[in-house]
């Protein structure tokens, strides 16, 4: 099952818990591996994605600069300082291309342009320059399983059965076969009749999103050309939308060998430019995800099972699935590939909902995200604990796409006009200005964590070595010649636990880098401590 549809299934109310449980359970699928010890250095090699946290944002909801209530590129430029101060190293922009917005921009009408709501190509180039000046990488969302029906490619394909682009989409005289994979929120209909061409076209998403036909060499070349064009302009990489769905061998529509083969070609294209990165939204089983990662395919892959496992650790105080997920990801992700650690995204409820968490739970989840092996991908607003909204413009996933909250004024500093989507609740406390000035706020915690991570090679790429613990706890080493770190996380919501680790000689006392305080005691090269509920420590020798 596709995670976004899985998560989006959550929008149907009561289904949410059941689906989250199923998803969480998936993380325990596969042969149980040894719980301890697992030591595996992350693969060697350059690449900015190995060092920095990525920040996903919606241009539409980040900052409006012209009072029309819609976020735009100039607004985003005004907020780059927030991102640099936060400590992220890259931004991933949700689709900002021309689009009828029937799927919030995931229905692209022109891959090479900028949606007029957001500005112009010149604005984008300025954004790129301003981001780079601050050391921020910029990733675009490459949505090339399908286009919008409004894309010129589709207009041309539907207009003629013999034209140049006749086979750029998947056409059939009658409704063709379905897919064995379900796609809950988009409906099960897979073929739609097009009166202009007098044939049916195939789509895995809404009928306004016809699937591209990668069996056409010209189409495949055109998609590579789109990537090339943005790379030439200077973008640092792409987040790939549903990269497992490009080629169908009905009834199998996902994970087909031809799809994998295309990713190798795309990677070759990307590697012609210097240090550019592909991040794949691959779904869902972890053995399948692995196949997309590696030095000749994508550098980064989401493992949504890991996200669900993190939710259950925070929600239920049980980190056993999380421990198993991390062990699996570290041991099995092929060389040159790395898993991304994420807590939320634009398709699912926000973290206070999914983790049923208050500030201490959100802080702990962030501590995990920034210290565990893998690349952190933060969803905008997570750093201030933004909650779900209560209205939507396009579909119910808009709950998680409300305007960013910058201050406690009526429109939260997002716009001087009327926001395109009502703000979520709690803006008085859940905003950047208030939290920036408050020691102990979630935002301060994120900043401290990211600063820590940014200066610690151990946290960025240290070997991962988990220790045996109780199920409510996760204790692991990040080992690196530049200096080891010991991380101890207690997910339980109440009570204390005893934690213990053998420490190297010379570690006579351990200091938590987050609080600056010494914790526990060392006797005979063994450190012991009593850890309170929801505490997360990042430890180094004093
Ligand atoms: C996955 C995206 O995350 C989602 O938002 C979108 O609706 C579908 N792909 C279709 O592009
Ligand atoms: Mg605007």
Task: Provide structural commentary.
The chain is an alpha/beta fold and 542 residues long. Helices cover 30% and strands 16% of the residues. The chain has 17 helices and 19 strands. It has helices spanning 3-9, 15-26, 59-62, 73-78, 80-86, 121-133, 152-159, 217-233, 257-271, 286-290, 304-316, 320-332, 351-354, 359-371, 432-436, 442-455, 457-461; strands at 54-57, 90-93, 137-142, 171-172, 191-194, 199-202, 237-240, 277-280, 300-302, 338-342, 375-379, 463-467, 473-479, 485-490, 496-502, 510-512, 521-523, 526-532, 536-541. The strands form four sheets. Strands 1-2-3-7-8-9-10-11 form an eight-stranded parallel β-barrel. Strands 12-13-14-19-16 form a five-stranded antiparallel β-sheet. Strands 4-6-5 form a three-stranded antiparallel β-sheet, with no helix packed on it. The protein binds 1-deoxynojirimycin and magnesium ion. The site of 1-deoxynojirimycin (NOJ) has 10 residues, from loops.
